[in-house]
Structures are given as structure tokens and as C-alpha cells.
Design brief:
- The protein has 136 residues and is of the alpha+beta class.
- It has helices at 24-52, 66-69, 86-90, 111-126, and strands spanning 4-5, 21-22, 57-58, 61-62, 71-73, 79-81, 93-96, 99-102.
- The protein has a two-stranded antiparallel ribbon with strand order 1-2. A two-stranded antiparallel ribbon has the order 3-4.
- Strand 7 (93-96) and strand 8 (99-102) form a beta hairpin.
- Helix 1 packs antiparallel against helix 4 (111-126).
Length: 136
């Protein structure tokens, strides 16, 4: 199945105009599937990102939650980590004992593992495109 359709070639003609048409219905269908994937995958990726976000604690007791509470997703499915130390946490670091150290809770940060998770989900959904019994 091609998105571009060419007219039947008449072998008796050696010269003449060529007409190329885009089958926009197929393109729109594929774009709609891509949009549906985004709508399906991004809330799951957001939850993964939030789950990976470290929480301040001391001796096993949870002290914070500011980072998780200020991580949101907008209507365009963009994740926002809206707190001053978001980049520090996303680099797999955090403050402990008054010093910058590697994070025990999120040593790889949140973005990279979330991107990997998104790729896995997208691949799974793309593989279902040809199966008629699967609804996105």
C-alpha cells in the first residue's frame, strides 16, 4: 500500500505527461492513528515519569513530594517538571547530607527511562496497525 498512486502505465505510449496524485485518505488515516497513539501513550509515559521522580526522604521517612506534585502534562501531551531542581533530578543527582550526590531513587533521571518506555509502547502500538481486531 502506497500513499502515492500513479496512473496505469500504457506501454504503447513512449512520451506524454505524467500525473502523480497523493492519496490523502490514506495519509489522513495514518496521521489519525499517530495522533491516537500519542493520546494513548503519553498519559502512560507521564505516569512512568512521575513514578520515577524522586521524593525527599530521610531514614526511610518520606519528607517531600514537591517534585511529583509539580510534574504535570498539558493538553498537547507535553510533560512539565515545574520546580527549580528538575534538571538536577533528571541528571540522576540529588542533594543528600547537604551535598550533591548521585540519586539512589532515580540514578538515570526520569527522561531517559521514560523515553525508552515510550519507544516500547509506540512499537507495540505500531505493530498492531495491521491487525483489525485491535483498537487504539
Amino acid at each position: 500500500m502506497s500513499l502515492i498512486t500513479l496512473p496505469q502505465y500504457n506501454q504503447s505510449l513512449t512520451t506524454g505527461p505524467l500525473t502523480v496524485e497523493l492519496d490523502s485518505r490514506r495519509m489522513v488515516a495514518k496521521l489519525n492513528k499517530a495522533i491516537k497513539i500519542k493520546q494513548t501513550v503519553m498519559p502512560q509515559v507521564f505516569q512512568k515519569f512521575k513514578d520515577l521522580t524522586p521524593v525527599a526522604n530521610q531514614k526511610g521517612k518520606r519528607l517531600g513530594g514537591n517534585a511529583k506534585n509539580n510534574t504535570t502534562i498539558d493538553n498537547n501531551y507535553v510533560i512539565h517538571a515545574d520546580y527549580q531542581y528538575a534538571q538536577v533530578l533528571d541528571q540522576g543527582r540529588g542533594y543528600r547530607d547537604g551535598q550533591m550526590r548521585g540519586s539512589d531513587q532515580a540514578p538515570r533521571g526520569m527522561s531517559e527511562p521514560s523515553k525508552e518506555y515510550a519507544k516500547q509502547l509506540i512499537k507495540a502500538y505500531v505493530n498492531t496497525f495491521g491487525k483489525s481486531n485491535v483498537q487504539l
